[in-house]
Amino acid sequence: MIDPVPLPATVPSGATPLLTVDHLTMQFGGLLAIDDLSMVAGHSEITAIIGPNGAGKTTVFNCLTGFYKPTIGRLALHQPEGDKLLERMEGFRIAQDARIARTFQNIRLFPAMSVLENLIVAQHNKLMRASGYTVLGLFGLPGYRRAEADALELARYWLDRVGLTDRADDNAGALPYGAQRRLEIARAMCTEPVLLCLDEPAAGLNPRESHDLNEFLRFIRDEHKIGILLIEHDMSVVMKISDHIVVLDYGRKISDGTPEAVRNDPNVIRAYLGEDEDEELPPEVAADLAKGAGPSAPTEGPKT
Ligand SMILES: Nc1ncnc2c1ncn2[C@@H]1O[C@H](COP(=O)(O)OP(=O)(O)OP(=O)(O)O)[C@@H](O)[C@H]1O
Ligand SMILES: [Mg+2]
Known about the structure:
Radius of gyration: 20 Å
Number of helices: 11
Distance between the termini: 26 Å
Bound molecules: adenosine-5'-triphosphate, magnesium ion
Number of domains: 2
CATH class of the largest domain: Alpha Beta
Helix content: 25-40%
CATH superfamily of the largest domain: P-loop containing nucleotide triphosphate hydrolases
Strand content: 15-25%
Structural class: alpha/beta
């Protein structure tokens, strides 16, 4: 295991902070899944969280989105109206009020609903508000009809962005795997988040789909100006599109910086390759890491 080094928690580009994680610790019985993690994610930036299997990446998302209450730590989402302290909020409030959306390591669509319905259901909160939380909405109040039309327009916008307009009426479960992954991101975007958390979105994608995903995430960042937190094992995705990378190993942060800095960080090379500290990496291995070939595998299994 690599000794932790105190690392500054900053945004390397100097972008305005969107999320600040302070001393986050998550303990499961005797297991320290996250050990004193501090990091900052910038506005309109893609911040990747990488690390070997079991490093604690998904646990960070579970703490951010209210699935787990952190043992210790402060999670602040910076908003114009003030900071939202996520560790004090219920999960549904984090989605609704803090506007953090996520996708899961294993796809969680409504497979028996149509592709379009999956995107409308995601806007349930907005529609409920417009209905005044009563059945009156069902009788066609103008406010509700407008909200319904807006929800449909937003769903169609994201369907188009992910190239699924032609499949709008098909069951989500009938889509090919790569399309289901895109639909999950579209569904998360239909909640109009300020922070989008993606857990291994490139897992199982072919090189073409992986390339399209890169373009899509750049589009979301650049055109919609939201922050993206990206957990990913595919280094060809991570190194190409991230503005900032945080590396975890056994729950501890071992590196934090630009893709260039992280790629050349001996701590990262050791964590990924299990290299002896005194040995130099063989040139072909170093080249592989630079290209993005990490040894960790995308993970299968029923994880949250
Ligand atoms: N609910 C839980 N109860 C007990 N242990 C847990 C729980 N959730 C996660 N862990 C443990 O915490 C550690 C970190 O798990 P986590 O799923 O966050 O890793 P990860 O970095 O996402 O790994 P992977 O790349 O394999 O998805 C692992 O040892 C895991 O077994
Ligand atoms: Mg995980």
